[in-house]
Write a structure and sequence with these properties.
The structure holds 2 protein chains of 2 kinds.
Chain A (H helix, E strand, L loop, with lengths): L2 H19 L3 E10 L6 H12 L8 E7 L2 E4 L4 E4 L18 E3 L3 E10 L15 E2 L1
Parallel strand pairs in A: 1-2
Antiparallel strand pairs in A: 1-6, 3-4, 3-5
Helix pairs in contact in A: 1-2
Chain B lengths: L1 E10 L2 H17 L2 E6 L6 H14 L4 E7 L4 H7 L5 E5 L8 H6 L11 E5 L16 E7 L6 H4 L1 H5 L3 E5 L11 H11 L4 E4 L8 H14 L6 H6 L3
Parallel strand pairs in B: 2-5, 2-6, 3-4, 3-5, 6-7, 7-8
The chains are: A alpha+beta, B alpha/beta.
């Protein structure tokens, strides 16, 4: 049960970003979790609500994108997706490979926040579709 | 009010990974081989480490150990009987060690005087796999009493390890341990992983293990552990 530690780390990382953006409300926190990240998504969702309590993230939704496992097959000379972490071999030619190219991810991808309307001269409102980096 | 997407890509365990990278640099500079020992509870990590420390101390090899435990200092006291310096890291119920705790327990030790630093993790095959401790070698242990399918139940841990050690080999016969099946399961989740069979009780396999340690030390800083490969920036 290290998901509570991970949830706390996640909240600690996201809070300064929310504060800098001056956002009064966070709708979603989006993260990527690889198949080999060693994280139970259900536990993390449960722990997230506990870790977010009494912070600016309280009430926000944790959205998890699960990242499948991809290895590189030296025989086929390409990256191939595996159905799970139990057989590290190319599903096409069956050659074993431990050359992992994807699946260990555990990172924040983005936040969906509410922000105050910017007062733009001329009265145009900020574009709600705007994507800020 | 309007809705905005703030895009960012930031590793959630970034803080631990940064501390681990700093530790790894320190271990390299001091030319000490750091090993992280992981297993289920009851695999015999402490007995295996105790035997390892005794063998190394007998040979005059400078070695030290940190041992993680939920509450007690029983393991540290057991290990200290070997004559090697040993420190306990109490996690107070937490299920894994973090790099910062390793760092804070090294104060006062002269790393450059050591050949090996062993870190015995908390008995758990899930959580410690996510936490890089700055080790050069992650050692996953499984005992013959646990069943051959352990690697399939905990692929993440076996996959992030650099060597697998089978313990309690003296019980392999009575337990009808199927060595071929165990090796095939390890190979399935981590192709090419080195597997060593050992018994802390009879000493079986210890020579091969000590030879492995010496070999890894010779490989030096150019050799990157599986944990390092996943937490060092590409």
């Amino acid at each position: 049960m290290h998901e509570l530690s991970i949830a706390h780390s996640l909240v600690e990382l996201a809070l300064p970003v929310v504060e800098r953006a001056g956002a009064p409300r966070v709708r979603e926190v989006r993260i990527a979790v690889g198949a080999l990240a060693g994280v139970s998504v259900d536990s993390l969702l449960f722990c997230y609500d506990i870790a977010a309590r009494s912070t600016l993230l309280e009430g926000s939704r944790l959205v998890v994108r699960e990242v499948p496992l991809v290895i590189h097959c030296a025989v086929c000379e390409r990256d191939v997706e595996l159905p799970g972490p139990l057989q590290f071999r190319c599903p096409v030619c069956e050659t074993p490979s431990g050359d992992i190219r994807q699946g260990r991810e555990l990172y924040i991808e983005g936040l969906e926040v509410d922000v105050e309307e910017e007062v733009v001269p001329g009265g145009a409102s900020a574009n709600p579709e705007e994507r800020a980096l | 009010m309007s809705t905005r997407i703030l895009e960012l890509r930031r590793d959630i365990l970034n803080q631990n990974d940064e501390t681990a990278r700093a530790l790894r640099a320190r271990f390299r500079a001091a030319d000490v081989l750091a090993l992280n020992l992981v297993s289920s509870p009851g695999t015999g990590k402490t007995a295996f480490l105790e035997k390892t420390l005794r063998e190394l101390v007998e040979r005059g090899v400078p070695v030290a150990a940190l041992v993680g435990d939920l509450e007690t200092d029983n393991d540290a006291r057991r290990l200290a009987a070997s004559g090697a310096p040993v420190r306990q890291i109490n996690t107070h119920g937490r299920c894994h060690l973090e790099a910062a705790w390793v760092e804070s327990h090294l104060d006062g030790w002269s790393l450059s005087d050591l050949d090996y630093l062993f870190v015995e993790n908390v008995g758990n095959l899930v959580c410690p796999s996510s936490y890089d401790l700055g080790e050069a070698v992650r050692v996953v242990l499984l005992s013959v009493t646990e069943g051959e399918d352990k690697p399939l139940k905990y692929p993440g841990m076996f996959n992030s390890s650099d060597v697998a050690v089978i313990t309690k080999w003296d019980l392999a016969g009575p337990c009808e341990f199927d060595e071929a099946a165990a090796r095939a399961n390890i190979e399935a989740v981590r192709p090419g992983l080195r597997v060593l069979a050992t018994s802390a009780k009879t000493g079986f396999g210890m020579d091969e293990w000590l030879a492995f340690l010496a070999e890894r030390r010779r490989l030096g800083p150019d050799f990157l552990s599986a944990a390092a490969r996943s937490s060092e920036p590409m």
